[in-house]
Amino acid sequence: MRFLLVILGIFGLWGRGATVDVPLDLARSAQAWCLLGVDLALPDLATNPGGLPFAASWHLCSTFSSTFGVVRVWAISLSTQGFGAEAVLVDGGEIGPNLHYRVWAGRAGAGLRLGQFGLGGQVRVLRPEQPKALLGGALDLGFFWAGPVYVGILAESLVSFSPYPHEGWPPDLSLAAAWRGDLGGFSGTVGVGFMDLLSLPAWALAGALDFGSVELRLGLRATALSLGGSVESSWFALDWVFTLHPALPLSFRVSFTLR
Amino acid sequence: MSRARGPKPVKCRAVKLLLLLILAATLAWASPEKLDPALRALLFSPPETQLTLLSAYPEQALPDPEIPVFVELAPSAPSTLPGLRSRVGTWATASLPLSQIAQLAERADVLRIWASRPVEPLLDLSVPEVGAPLLWYGSPSTTGQGVVLGFVDSGLDILHPAFRVDRNADGIPEGSRVLFYWDQTSGGIGWFPPFWGDEPGEGLYGQVYAQRDLEAAITANYWPASDTLGHGTHVAGIAAAGPAGGLPGVAPGADIVVVKTNFYEDGVVDGLKFVFEAAEYLGRPVVVNLSLGGHAGPHDGTSPFERMISDLVDRPGRIIVAAAGNEGAKKIHVGGEIRDRTTWTLVPASATVIARFWYELPGQFRIQVTSPRGETLLLLPGQARGLTTSSGVLWVDNSLSPASQTQQVFLTLSGSLPGEPWKITFEPVFPGRVDGWLESASMGSFSEGDSTMTIAEPGNARRVITVGAYVTRITWNSQAGPQHAEGYTVQDLAPFSSQGPTRDGRLKPDLAAPGAWIVSARSREAQVSPWYALPDGEHMVLAGTSMAAPHVAGSCALLLSLRPSLSWQEVLEALQAGARVDAYVGPTPNARWGRGKLQVAQAWATMAAPPPAAEPWLSLLGNPVSTSALFRYQLPENVSWAELRVYDLLGRLVWRAVLDRSGETVRWDLLGPNGLQVASGLYLVVLVTDRGASEPLRLVVSR
Fold this sequence. Notes:
The complex is a heterodimer.
Chain A: H1 2-14, H2 22-25, H3 30-34, E1 59-67, E2 71-80, E3 83-96, E4 99-114, E5 117-130, E6 136-146, E7 150-161, E8 172-182, E9 187-195, E10 202-210, E11 214-221, E12 224-232, E13 236-244, E14 251-258
Antiparallel strand pairs in A: 1-2, 1-14, 2-3, 3-4, 4-5, 5-6, 6-7, 7-8, 8-9, 9-10, 10-11, 11-12, 12-13, 13-14
Chain B: H1 13-26, H2 37-44, H3 47-54, E1 66-73, E2 84-88, E3 91-97, H4 98-106, E4 110-115, E5 120-121, H5 126-129, H6 132-136, E6 148-153, E7 164-165, E8 175-176, E9 178-183, E10 207-210, H7 211-220, H8 231-240, E11 255-260, H9 265-282, E12 286-290, E13 292-293, H10 304-312, E14 318-323, E15 333-338, E16 342-348, E17 353-360, E18 364-370, E19 376-379, E20 384-389, E21 392-397, E22 406-414, E23 422-430, E24 432-438, E25 444-446, E26 465-471, E27 475-478, E28 481-484, E29 511-516, E30 518-521, E31 539-542, H11 545-562, H12 568-577, H13 600-606, E32 617-621, E33 629-634, E34 642-647, E35 653-658, E36 665-668, E37 681-689, E38 692-693, E39 697-701
Parallel strand pairs in B: 6-11, 6-12, 9-11, 12-14, 14-26, 26-29
Antiparallel strand pairs in B: 1-3, 1-4, 2-3, 5-13, 7-8, 9-10, 15-24, 16-23, 16-25, 17-22, 17-24, 18-19, 18-23, 20-21, 21-22, 27-28, 30-31, 32-33, 33-36, 34-35, 34-37, 37-38, 37-39
C-alpha cells in the first residue's frame, strides 16, 4: 500500500491541474459518456484496451456532441474483439479575431485475453490544429478483470510526448468497477469510477437498466448529472445523452452504432 | 475604386481649361444653393481657380473629375443612392464625378453637398509623466488588455518590434498586435472583413489585411503597405507600443486596428467607422486616435466632418481623441464683431490660398477684396464672382445658404505671389461677428490675426476629446549627436499648441499631454533626418499635438480596460478631474491648457464606483493567454456571493475564486487545484452568483 502511495506521489509531482488529453476523452460514444467513466469497467465499450478482448461483436459508431453549447465534437470509432480505433474532431469555433480552437485526435488499441483477465495497450495521437498546429502522442496500458464484478484500470500516458513544447503530458490513472446482473425480466448495471487520480481526481456513479430494445442510463459525479438511453436492435443502436451541469449550459450527445 | 490621392502636376493646361469650361456650361442648371462654396467654386469659378482647387485632388479624368464629398440626406432618401459610402446620421460620405454632384443636388431628398477637404498629419519621459505605470502595476492593474486602439493615420510599420508579440516565448516576436489594417491608399479592391461592407454604403476601396496576413508579412519580413511618412508609427508607438520595442507606450497591452488614410475628411470618417465596426465585431471597447486636422470648417462642431465624427460616438465604450492642432503660434485666424467697415490683411505664403470666413444670420456683409496692386472686387450678399489680377486669380463666394444659420464667405487665390498682401474688407449690411481661417498655415497668415480659436477640425467636434501639448523633453542624443530644442521650456505649454475656444464658445482643448519632444517608434520606411533619429535606429523624436493626443488615447484605453462600459463623457470628466494643475497651467479651465495636464492614474482614482449591473457580466481581457488570464466582471446589486469558475471541456472544475463584490477584475495564473500549471487547451469560464450565472466564455491557453 505504501509502495502504491509512493508511486502515486511521484506521478502526482508530474501531474497537472487539467490534462492535455481532454479532446480524446470527448471522443466517447453517447453510451460511454453517460456512464461518466464507469464505462472503463464495461467490456463492450472501447474505452479500456484491456476490455477489448471481451467485446461480443464488432461496432462501427459515429457520434456528434454539442458540449456546453460552445464546443462541437464529431467522432467515429471501430472496434472488434481485441482491437479498437477511433478518431475525433473537437471544434471550439471562432473565439476571437483569428482565434479558433480545433483539435484532431485518434486512438488505436489492441488487447489480449488471459482467462478472466484482459491486458491491452493503446496509442493516442493528439493533433491540435488551431490556434497552433502541433502533434503529440501517448502510450497507455489497460487492465480488465471479468470476475463477479468487472474491474477496469487504465494507466494513461506511460510514455508520451506532449504536443505543447513547454508542457509535459504526465501519466494518469483511472479505475472503475461495475456489476451487471439479471433483475427479473430485465438486466441492470451499476458501477463506480475514480478517474484521473493524478491530475483532477473525480468520482462517478453510474447505472443502466436494459429492457431489451430500450436501455435507460444515469450517471452522476460532482459536477455532472447524465441522463441517457438507447433504442437498439440486433444490428444497430441509437444512443443519446443529456448532461446537466451546475454552472454550464446543457450538453447533448448522440451516437449511431452499427454492429 | 482607387482612392489614392495626392497633388499631381497639371499637364496640358489649355486643354483642361477648355474641358472645364464645357463642363461648367453644361452644369449651369445645377442647384447651387445646396452646394458648399468650395463645390460652387469648382463649378462656376474661373478655370484657373477650378484647376487650383482640383490640384488638391489626385490626377483626375477631365472633363468630369471625381470629387470626395459629404452629402446630407432627407429622412426619405434611400440608402442606395449611387456613390454613397459610410452613412452616419443624416450625412454620408461619397466620391462622385462632378457632373453627378450637380445631378444629385437636383434631388429633393438631397439637402446639402459639401466638399471633403484635405486634413494634415499634426506632428521615455512622457509615459511615466502621465502616470501610466501606476495603472500597469497598480491594483487593479491594466495595460489596456481587451481594448481596441485605433489609429487613422499614415499607416504603421508592422515589422517594428513595438507592434509584434512573441506568442511561443521562443524569443522571436512572430505575432502581430494589429488585428486589422486597412490601407485606403492602395489601388484596387481587396479582401474585406465580414463586418465591413455588410451595410449599404460602407466603402469597399483599398485593401484590408487581417492579422494572419500581417503575420505572414512579418515572417516574410516584407510589408508593402508600410508607413512611409513615419507619423502613424510614431503616434501608435506613443499610445500602444509593446515592451518588445524597448519603450512601452501608454497602453502596451491593447490590441491595434490601423487605417492608413488618404488624409481626406471623408476617408477619415470611413476609417473611423471601420475601426468602430471592427471593435463591435470583436465585442470590445475602442479608442480611436486622430492626430490630424484642418481648418476648412466653421470650428464649431457643425461641419459634416465634425458632425459625422460626433455621431459615431453614439454608445458607451467608444471614444475619439483628437489633436488640438499646431497653429498656436500662427496667425491663421481673424475675428471680431463687425459693426463698422473692417479690413484684414492676408499675406500669402504660397501660390494657392484658401480662406473661409464664418458668421451667423442675420448678419450680412459686403465684401471688398483688394489685390497688392490695387485691383478691387466688390461683392454684395448673395454674389459669387472672380477677378483676374496681375497678382493672381481671385474667387470670392458671398452667397447665402438657406439651409443653415451659419454662413460662409469663401475666398481663394490662385497664382498669388508670396509676401504680397491682399486686403479683405467686411462692411456690415447687418452687423455680426465674423471669424475667418486660412485652410492651412502653410498658405500664409493674417497681419491682424491671432492664435485663438485655432483648434483644428475635428478637434471642435462635440463628442471628441481634444488634446493640447506641453513640453517634457528638450534634449536628446540623435544620430547627428546631442540635440537641444530652442524655444521650449520643460513643463510649459508647447508654443505650437493650438488654442481654443471653439467658434461657439466651448472650452477646447480639453486637457494637455506631453507633445514635445517625444521619443517613439520609427518606421523603417520613412525618411528621417539624423537630427531626429535616435542612434538605436528604432526610435525617433517628434513634437506636435499629434504626439500629445496618443498619450490621452492610450490613457482612455487603460480606463476602458478597467471599465469597458464608460462613455466618452465619463472618461473626459475623469481625465479632467484628475488633471494636474501647476504654475505653468495657471487658473483652469483656460483656452490653452483646458483643465490641465494629463494624469491617468489620478483620473482613475476620481472615478465613482460603476453602476450596478442587471445580470452577472464577465469579460476576458486577452485571448489566447500563456501566463495568466485577466477577467473583468460586474455583479448585480443584490448579489450575496459570487464566484469565478474555470472548467475544462469535461466540465471538471479547474479553478475557482470567490469574488469581491466591490472589485472589478480578477486574475487567474493558469494554475490548477494542485497549484500546478494547467495544460494548454480550451477552458470555459463562468461567473456564478446566487442570482444566476453569466454566459460561459471560451478561454484558450496556448503556450
